[in-house]
Design a protein that fits this description.
The protein is α+β, with helices and mostly antiparallel strands. Helix content is 44%, strand content 15%.
Length: 162
């Protein structure tokens, strides 16, 4: 950065300070400290238990439905707070649209891991994430979104005999 400034000239600082891009990001450092204090007060073990409870319930919902493919470890202890799945042959973007109409936020697409999607033979997945601030009521809203998706696209409905 700059070491000294005059009306007609300036001098730069020595390396590596010469390339410092201005005022350090103090606001985010302070916010990070507050976040660490908050998470420490709640307790990381408690957060982990809550997250596993939500993910476990979401997995129960998904596995109870036919024509739903769940990706990732079967063991809840080997999972984080993310659940990826597909519904029948419905494109993930279409599934996401129905969830959105129910007020349920999910991510859809290849999630920046196209090699994995190619290895799985799919174009993408629907991804739900659960954390400290989520509730079991929100998992139930997720379940309603899944049922509405299957109903809207008639996933699993028997074909009418002609």
């Amino acid at each position: 950065m700059i070491q000294r400034v005059w009306a007609d000239r300036f001098t730069t600082n020595i390396l590596p300070h010469k390339f410092e891009a201005g005022t350090p990001n103090i606001a985010d450092v302070i916010a990070f400290g507050a976040a660490v204090d908050y998470l420490s007060a709640v307790g990381l073990p408690a957060i982990g238990r809550h997250e596993r409870e939500l993910v476990g319930r979401a997995l129960d919902v998904l596995r109870a439905e036919s024509h739903v493919e769940v990706y990732g470890p079967a063991d809840i202890a080997a999972r984080g707070g993310v659940v990826s799945f597909n519904v029948g042959n419905i494109h993930p973007h279409d599934v996401g649209q129905v969830f959105d109409s129910e007020g349920v936020e999910v991510r859809v697409g290849h999630h920046c891991c196209q090699p994995l999607m190619r290895a799985l033979g799919i174009s993408g997945t629907v991804r739900a994430s659960f954390y400290l601030y989520n509730t079991l009521d929100e998992v139930e809203a997720f379940a309603r979104g899944l049922r509405k998706t299957k109903s809207f696209f008639k996933v699993g409905a028997r074909e009418a005999k002609v």
